[in-house]
Amino acid sequence: MAIEIIAAGRAVPPRRVTNNDLAEKLDTSDEWIRSHTGIGARHIVDDGIAVSDLALEAAWNTLTLAVEERLVPETTAEDLAKTLDIIVLGTSSPDYHVCPATACIVQDKLGASRAGALDIGAGCSGFIYGLETAAGLLELHDRRKRALVLGAETLSRFVDWNDRSLCILFGDGAGAVLIEKTCAPRAGPGKRGLLRTILGSDGSGAEYLIVRKGGSRNPYRTGDPVEKAPCIEMNGRAVYNFAVKKVVEIIEQFLSEENITMEDIARIVPHQANARIIQAAAKRLGIPEEKFFINIEEYANTSSASIPIALHELNRNGGLRRGDLILIVGFGAGLTYGGSLIVW
Ligand code: UT7
To answer: How far is CA 117 from CA 2, 92, 104, 106, 202, in A?
Structure first.
């Protein structure tokens, strides 16, 4: 039995904000942002758009691709949605602060009438955590066959647009994959799908990437004066160091424990936080940077959405072939980290 990725889709808001657009309002420049992060632009949602709206668009995109490319027997995306057993959505910017889960809103609007739905809060590692959670839930029960795994963010709502060290980094977007439990082998010749996942957390770094206001530690109370909106605070250097270390460790762990070499891996699809993180990891591993797929220039850091958006793009551009061994790897608030080894 294997858990296979059937299709990957995405949604990106049409409004594109370039580095030069930001430099008109902030003390920054296209040169600084590009040289320190690799980012050239980001896509930002308009007022009135919530994360479930982006997630829903990515979900329909994924289901429609699966139908159009005849990867499933269903003939409409609506019929396919009705067959979903689980919807898992990784996000740090849900529609609502406490409840309900954004995944439930997506489930309803998709008409996924028999699906269970839940959110995953694992920062930018949310998609990797979500993929493993959904795979585990499918494996737990004979009757569960299909799941939709999403990463969706509107972090533009939670950054201080006057903080030049932070606001230049993030963009909005959503990505999704349809996964299915099949009878293909998970090991040995002809193995398919999700082979193995590593998940980890180092909560001692919780303060390095944090939104302090609004939770049970620091709640809003009746009568509180209206103050600055809750915003992300980040120790960029600490997150950077953690990220490089963990990306290298995860890749080395897969190589040694799965008895594979770098030549066996067709592509590494990392979380797109900063091109320099990826370049530094490639250098430490002694592998060419081109082994990593990088599309941060156009989208900036879309947090839990960055890996599924990258998978969609790589696949659409012909960069992935069925049977390719790929590795996804990520890190983020928590601090969390993780990676999955997948036969595409
Ligand atoms: O998904 C996970 C989320 N987060 C991350 O992955 C972030 C990881 N960290 C990073 O990517 C990098 O640490 C940053 C891109 C955030 C910062 O890069 P850095 O090379 O660590 O810069 P820095 O914070 O050390 O700042 C260097 C200088 C400072 O000026 P002084 O003190 O040297 O005069 C900053 O004030 O650059 C200045 N600076 C800027 N200058 C122009 C900071 N932001 C900007 C800016 N434009 N946007």
So the answer is: 22, 16, 5, 9, 27
